[in-house]
UniProtKB/TrEMBL annotation:
Domain Transketolase-like pyrimidine-binding: 326-491
Metal-binding listed as a keyword: yes
Enzyme class: transferase
Name of the gene encoding the protein in the UniProt record: dxs
Name assigned to this protein: 1-deoxy-D-xylulose-5-phosphate synthase
Organism: Micromonospora thermarum
Enzyme Commission numbers on file: 2.2.1.7
Protein residues bound to thiamine diphosphate: 83, 124-126, 156-157, 184, 295, 377
Required cofactor(s): Mg(2+); thiamine diphosphate
Function: Catalyzes the acyloin condensation reaction between C atoms 2 and 3 of pyruvate and glyceraldehyde 3-phosphate to yield 1-deoxy-D-xylulose-5-phosphate (DXP).
Organism classification: Bacteria, Bacillati, Actinomycetota, Actinomycetes, Micromonosporales
Entry's Gene Ontology molecular function annotations: 1-deoxy-D-xylulose-5-phosphate synthase activity
One Pfam assignment: DXP_synthase_N
Reaction equations catalysed: D-glyceraldehyde 3-phosphate + pyruvate + H(+) = 1-deoxy-D-xylulose 5-phosphate + CO2
Family designation: Belongs to the transketolase family. DXPS subfamily.
Amino acid sequence: MSVEQDTAHHAGLLAAVSGPQDVKRRSTEQLGILAAEIRDFLVAKVSRTGGHIGPNLGVVEITLALHRVFDSPRDRLLFDTGHQAYVHKILTGRQAGFDKLRQRGGLSGYPSQAESEHDLIENSHASTALSYADGLAKAYALRGESRAVVAVVGDGALTGGMCWEALNNIATAGNPLVIVVNDNGRSYSPTIGGLADHLSSLRLNPGYEKVLDTVKEALGSTPLVGKPMYEVLHAVKKGIKDAVAPQAMFEDLGIKYVGPVDGHDVAAVEGALRAAKNFGGPVIVHAVTRKGYGYRPAEEDEADCLHGPGGAFDVETGQLVAAPSVKWTHVFADELVAIADERPDVVGITAAMAEPTGIAKLARKHPDRVYDVGIAEQHAATSAAGLAMGGLHPVVAVYATFLNRAFDQVLLDVAMHKLPVTFVLDRAGITGPDGPSHYGIWDMSVFGVVPGLRIAAPRDAATLREELREAVAVDDGPTIVRFPTGAVVADLPALRRVGPVDVLAESARTDVLLVAVGSFGQLGMEVATRVAEQGYGVTVVDPRWVRPVPAELVELAAAHRLVVTVEDGVRVGGVGDALAQAMRDADVQVPLKDLGVPAGWHPHGTRAQILADLGLTAQNVARDVTGWISRLDVETVEPVIATDDAAAQN
Ligand SMILES: Cc1ncc(C[n+]2csc(CCOP(=O)(O)OP(=O)(O)O)c2C)c(N)n1
Ligand SMILES: CC(=O)[C@@H](O)[C@H](O)COP(=O)(O)O
Ligand SMILES: [Mg+2]
């Protein structure tokens, strides 16, 4: 067969898949071909859009086997985190959508109910699927519905505490439920922790299966010498298993364990899944896979097996096509290392995202001063509280969206104890292609209610460095420093500083106080120019520290006719809301308009597109501001006319 014929033959099998039924009818040999076609398809498509290529290359065979053994959507397939559901999408009629993967109006990077009846959970925060599965299995049992529930969970996601809370309940409930552990030994970087070590010891122990075979043979050939002999042999077998395998742990919990199976052998996975399906109770199928399997640049990418290139990449090399830029993350990472060089009490914490948050840079310089806690943001917060109680100043670097789940820990374990912990929230505000679950738009509202917590929103590289230093200098309570995704914007020097507030622009007229939060500083400057063209004077300020609301900001507000806030976060409970309250408390009667992200689930796209959709562009804000201030002119004129009328009548 020529290369062309071969390619056409490959493309033909995948092209003929419009749903799971087309996977079920394939022979074992055809499945191998189909798997290769899927990998080609993934690389070809994702290299143009960016996306989670490494994780998906690793679950091709598992997903094929799932769709052969189970009947989705009647049976429920749940993907933990959901970043590895591309193959599932390909097999459930969505191949055409991959040209616009993660792009505005296109396919979501995660399961999506709007896209397909085969998708159920849309949450793309890790470690939730087992809890959903527990609930679903209970619901189907109570309603008398015979439907299988299957959760696919990675070894990384398994480091999250919710998984263990769920396992505890799944075991007690005893409902039929299949948990596929997709064990590739990695989160982004190699997965950390006791469980991960246990799993990898099993994976790396070639003697394991041989030992079991020997015991099995011994059992088979041993003449029936009665129960005691059997028990001795059984104990030997169990002892060996306990030494090298995690099943003892799962089986002690009450969950049947099947495995380990080669996760790239469809027939093996299929066999294990069928056994699990027929078991009638909770079963763990432990599938060992390789992240990035079948695509050399991913397999050989030491950093993260091409976990999720943010944009188009070169198929030959796996390198991003876009020219590298200096990101907010880089500025933070460099400054943190500089601070740590000066202050031995400063330590870093990452929740399985050392490279993406920049903490890796500190780890390379001071390896004994960085802790990777796994995908465990709640634990990260309280562990940081412990470190602070022990005399250190922890810097917990997480994405803004992931700190949401640690609210109680930040509130009570850290803030109530007035502990000096700095949370650095990367990817704050609208992020883009990952969609609504990944927008870091809630932090200022959610954590704004925490007593004693100070929140900084730097506007550029210089203020990020400065505010990070100010944050780690705080020794009587927690701090947050939040900044957006992507390339850091050009430095925007202040004209002067009033308390903590930077004045970025001012004019002779004091019509509007424009409070530009964080990276909206530059937008504020453009708005001021546009509004000035309409004859109004705008003072642009950056509060720098948005919580607590600086008293100086309230004083500045009192000196203007209109206050407008613009922030990259939800309006409810945001900076605008907080300033309005502070103004009410101070009896400042100046009207305030707050611009930000409206409540809702805003679909994915680029950050710029979404901000434009939300009206958060200089043009839109300038139009709004001009409209509001000109209406105020009319309103202030009207009472005068009314008085004249009244005088005329008298
Ligand atoms: C709560 C939470 N924290 C962090 C992340 C970021 N994140 C996405 S995937 C991932 C690693 C997942 O590892 P694993 O479950 O083993 O899946 P793999 O990518 O190896 O297939 C992390 C840390 C997240 N989605 N949710
Ligand atoms: C699945 C997940 O939560 C992450 O992989 C996320 O997609 C990373 O986003 P960035 O590309 O912004 O690092
Ligand atoms: Mg993994």
